[in-house]
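Example record used in the benchmark description.
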Amino acid sequence: MRQETLIRGLVDCFLALGFVPWVLVFDNMKTVTSGRDAANQPLWTPGLLQLAAEFSFHPQACDPRAGNQKGSVESLVKWVKGNFLPGRVFRDDDDVATQTGEWLTMANGRASSATGIPPMDRLGEEAINGGTLPTTATDYGLLIPGQVAADATVAALGNRYSVPVAHVSAPVIIRLHRGRVRIFRDTALLADHERAVDGGRERIIDPAHFAPLFERKLRAQAMLYRDVLLTVGEPASDFLSALSQRHRARLREEILAVYALYEQYGADALRAAMVRAVAAGTCGADALTLLLAAPSSPLPVLVLPGVPCQEEVDRALGIYEAWVQIDVASEVRV
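Model output (structure tokens):
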């Protein structure tokens, strides 16, 4: 399994118990240790060491090739497979979770054959001796090291996340939460992004991180804002394409105005307004302003006798390419 899967599983166990055990014993898997040093001591991975420090437990590794030390864990896995799974049928993941909860209530409430005491009765005694849960337990951020690249982004699990340009080439610490990615330099928070799907090869950019460059790179500002607007949803691509065709002379001003509306109203409201603007054939910052100010009011449709509709004016490039191909074919025949 991935190290994040392991660590989140451990934190979930701590939350379920309500305390932190003093010692956690691990097999010598790569998510926990990269091997042994000259003194035969485990070389713990930085992520596990950080978890141990923050949750105040002592990690312990089984001796290499000492299968008897793993017996208690492996016997428990075998016991669950032999007592919970046989004869059961599951409709979906929710059904698995429901049946698991019911079985755990039954199994932990009956007397153990080893001790003669129900596990739930012993849990209180163990809690007295256990450590307290830190405040970070409910949304733990897995720690991984990183470095800011020349484009002011940091790589994390197949995506790149922006930080302020002043920190290019600096070493940073990345905290991977379930839904957020937070990037620190020492103790200073540089960036807080929504987490993208791992391995998506996305660039998650906050344009404010590049603000010092905007005075001398005006086009870059507009392009960054455009990239952010494209993340609004499906209508954004059609809207911005029409905006580029109809307002080319003042495209930068239009994109900056649309981005200001995005910051003021949010992605959901802007997406709904873009859908209506595209449907009405009126793609511009002024149209979005009207729609956002009065979401329920339709845009007025201007009809001029003898003037072609906007769909005929905004012809797709494929039409012209077809005419070029016809002309080229005619020249070849001549």
